[in-house]
Amino acid sequence: MGRGSPIPPMLRRKIVEQYQKGVSQRKIAKSLKLSSSTVHNIIQRFRESGSISVRKGQGRKTILDARDLRALRRHCITYRNATVMEITTWAQEYFQKTLSVNTIHRAICRCRLKLYRSKKKPYLNMIQKRRCFLWAKAHLKWTVAKWKTVLWSDESKFEVLFGKLGRHVIRTKEDKDNPSCYRRSVQKPASLMVWGCMSACGMASLHIWKGTINAERSECMFITYLGKGWHQHALWEEGKQAGEGRHSGPTGLHNNLANVLCQMPFLTGLGLALHPEAGNRTQAFHMIGFH
């Protein structure tokens, strides 16, 4: 029987009857399959009060019982993005009880749930998901040795911000309009496009671009630094995400790009075959016997 569950009155009577007959507490516990402490507590209460009734529970009852908590848990799982205030409004209408935000917050914790920040993940529509599946199915029988000839590349844009960027500030309630307590916000901050690649041999240095990167510019870069003959022995794969091919911007490379690429000796002889949705407009090369 679970901890805290009351012993049925019929079982209590059997314990008292056997005790009055002179049976030891250990034998009573063994015959009724109860713990010795449970039998001892029932007999001790019978000695003190002469009654076998369960003592009335002490303390204030919770406003939400177990059934209410199960309903609250189902609602929270169904509407995971709802705020505590929205859940409180729903709970007041559903349970017909006066509930505060703090009460609902504690009840959510009692339901073994907790408020977290959502994990960010790139959105993929059904077409992109199907392309991911077909790409994975096509490369399902690749060996480990073949995967080691893969060069993975991707690019990302980094916004350059400065000043007071912290999300939190230490202040009093009256200092909310103090300029020193503001958080700086820029509508279109300066940004850098950074490109990089990696393989089983290691990682290359990051390369800074001016403007955006698309499949044509990446192909031109590999032609420039790997020679014009590489494309005759390679398979070009690119990720066609939503909006790709409709980007504009300067096409010039950073002045240090040539020096950085020359420091990547593992590019020669490597293959590149990349997941079409692995990154933002990602390109891939599968080098077949290129030297």
From TrEMBL:
<dbReference type="InterPro" id="IPR036397">
    <property type="entry name" value="RNaseH_sf"/>
</dbReference>
<dbReference type="InterPro" id="IPR009057">
    <property type="entry name" value="Homeodomain-like_sf"/>
</dbReference>
<protein>
    <recommendedName>
        <fullName>Transposase Tc1-like domain-containing protein</fullName>
    </recommendedName>
</protein>
<dbReference type="InterPro" id="IPR036388">
    <property type="entry name" value="WH-like_DNA-bd_sf"/>
</dbReference>
<dbReference type="GO" id="GO:0003676">
    <property type="term" value="F:nucleic acid binding"/>
</dbReference>
<dbReference type="Pfam" id="PF13384">
    <property type="entry name" value="HTH_23"/>
</dbReference>
